[in-house]
Amino acid sequence: MSELHVVMVMPQKRPYITDIPNTTKEFEQIVGGPVDILGFQRQYKIVCNIEEGYDLTYNKKKPSSTFFVVKYQDQFESLSDTEAEEVKEVLKVKLKKWK
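Structure for DUF3846 domain-containing protein, as requested:
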């Protein structure tokens, strides 16, 4: 099983870089249920709980559960260290704007 280098965002915590197993089961465990995959800047995707995907997309409401950002180009890929730092900086700004 391969691992993915992602930026993890937990409620009330700062985004951080970590490695996670690249399996749907693990994604569901991290986000607390079925996953929704949303576009996020160029080739990146937000993976969050399906119940929060709509609010994030249309209401710009910050997810109340854990989500992560990963690279996606026809399949999930690890973020490079530089990409992960870039994503963390963008998330810091977005998290302040989201309700």
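The longest helix spans residues 81-97.
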